Amino acid sequence: MPGIPTRPGTLMIGRESLDRLRTAGMTMLSLGLFIQLSGLLLNNDDSRYATQINLLLFLPALLLLLSEKIDWPLWRQPCAWLLAALLGWVLLRGTLGADSDKPAHYWLKIGLFILLYVFSIHRLLLAGSFRKPLLAAVIVSALVAWLTLFYQFGVLDKPFSYSALRTYGRLSELGWGGFADLSHPIIAGLYFGLFTLLLLGLIVEFEPRWPALILAYAGLAGLVLYVLLTFSRGAWFATLAGGLVLLLLSPKPRARQLLGLGILILLAMLLIFQTELQSELRQGTSQRGPIWHNWFDRLPEFWLYGDGAGKPLVYTYPWGDTVYHAHSLYLQLWYEYGVIGAALFAALLCTLLFKGWQLRRQPEARIGLAALVFALVAMVSDIYALFHRPSPYWVIVWLPIGFLIALRRSPDQFAS
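== O-antigen ligase family protein ==
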């Protein structure tokens, strides 16, 4: 792209050729981000998904990063410093700790991937090219949600009753060819829950008109129904919390209309589905209590430095079932990286919340802040790992984090 300075001597080619390469790189970044967000639905092979992201997202991001001058305003923010400190601690803990679950080069690679991901979002935002891959991913998620509902209940004839769905019919996959298979209803609920929130944000903040608005509402209905039928209560609460933040912060009239409509629908559901809600309340924390008690009992063993990067927190129930993580990202992170890692992560989240609040006059910031609140709620009980190769958890957590780090003040805010 014209006008972007490069490091002297990095590429000894003409400006026209360099600009052409940058344009190609930005096109690949857009495609790579789309694949990272939607490839989990469009691929039926994890290794293919990883290869696509490496070639279309991380590789062009690395080449762009090396060919341009360092953008100091991006990396001089407190949130960027804290991210670097957190990744440094993860690398240090994973490299020097003999109890680490993976070799040193693994943690170096993951840290580099995360930094490249933040840089990719930053470059796409700077070029005005971020919204297109995001919108495309939202459209794909809505189409897949409706396709899943049609295939599961129309073609496979799955029974549409609470008892059947709650027992063995929770949604987590399309059911055909291994596509849109997110492995577990909790992961599926969180993944589609975030896209529900993003579509709501696009409807509220960018105010599409007819007939696009009708299509957007139809997509939103499909996503909401999919999330409900995963019976992932963590996804329910996360989507509700993020949606409330978005609608309460937005000054748009449509936000007030949707907030009122949402409250009416929620009250109606509380009245109509009283029996089902009582059943959900009886589920409690789905046997997470003993896992958390075990974590507190073992806290003196790992509270300072952690038990090792990537180490599973193994707990066996009295009846013989075994789990391998704390069923809470906050507890799992502390278990692996100690109070130092947990404090750095908490500080990172606080600075991002503060930045999102400062920039709340920007529509993009309101959506990013709502997405971060979604992630904060989701991490209470349902997410167990952050520092690993791209997965649904990257979409749920690293996308909001990277977006808020990369977001800049609009010119009118500088003037004010």
